[in-house]
Write a structure and sequence with these properties.
One of its GO terms (cellular component) is organelle. The chain is mostly helical. It has 10 helices and no strands.
């Protein structure tokens, strides 16, 4: 079966080669290589195609013969497999890290994490939880309703926390980028004049007095300007 599979693969490669050898000269040029890569969803500029071609061009004629073409496909396949292997290794390492973390905080060694152990765990990553919060978090992922976290529950909780952190980071980035549009010449705060300028750009021009009143509505410390934290609070309304 191996020899049959290899022979079939060779025939497929030859058909593919001949299909993209548009001028029938038994060679594939860099422009023909671009077309091949486009059909598998990878866009290459002419410089990238030429560099890829040079990498496997055995006779330095600037073209790919059949053997060069096969070697290129094998190289691409090897890179893809390597990428998949690295993904698997990363996943396996992450699993081991999770198991070590779980076992470290499973202080009584019963294969479960209690709400008090969960409090200790969260404290080590800088998040203080009261007992009620820890119990609520535990109930949220407790799959068998025994009031404890097994390994699978623990992994699911970590995934949820990671997802929430990513969401929070994205929201924080949006707030910071929006703040930059309104702030006064990179000084780190929004003034009535910078607010008026931005509103004018947005086609919603307001008199300076109204802008000053808008600033005062969210100026929590009364310094006459809006800092990033005050702006964040304003965006949450």
């Amino acid at each position: 079966m191996t020899s049959i599979s290899f022979a079939n693969a060779q025939k497929d490669m030859e058909r593919l080669f001949n299909h993209f050898d548009t001028n029938g000269d038994g060679k594939i040029s860099s422009s023909e290589l671009q077309l091949i890569m486009r059909t598998i969803g990878e866009e290459l500029c002419s410089e990238e195609a030429e560099a890829m071609l040079r990498y496997v061009d055995s006779d330095d004629d600037g073209l790919l013969g059949m053997e060069d073409f096969i070697r290129l496909v094998e190289t691409e396949s090897s890179e893809e497999e390597k990428s998949m292997d690295m993904t698997f290794i990363s996943f396996a390492n992450a699993q081991k890290d999770m198991e070590r973390l779980f076992n470290h905080f499973d202080t009584n060694g019963d294969g479960k994490i209690s709400s008090s152990e969960l409090q200790l765990l969260m404290k080590t990553i800088g998040e203080e939880l009261c007992s009620e919060e820890a119990e609520a978090m535990l109930r949220y992922v407790d799959s068998d309703d025994d009031g404890l976290l097994g390994m699978e529950d623990f992994i699911r909780l970590a995934e949820i926390e990671s997802s929430e952190e990513e969401k929070s980071n994205k929201e924080d980035h949006i707030v910071k980028e929006a703040f930059k549009l309104y702030e006064m010449d990179g000084k780190g705060f929004i003034t009535d004049r910078s607010l008026k300028r931005m509103l004018s750009h947005l086609g919603s021009s307001r008199p300076i007095e109204q802008c000053r009143s808008m600033i005062a509505s969210f100026d929590l410390n009364g310094d006459g300007v809006i800092c990033i934290e005050e702006f964040r609070a304003m965006m949450m309304l």
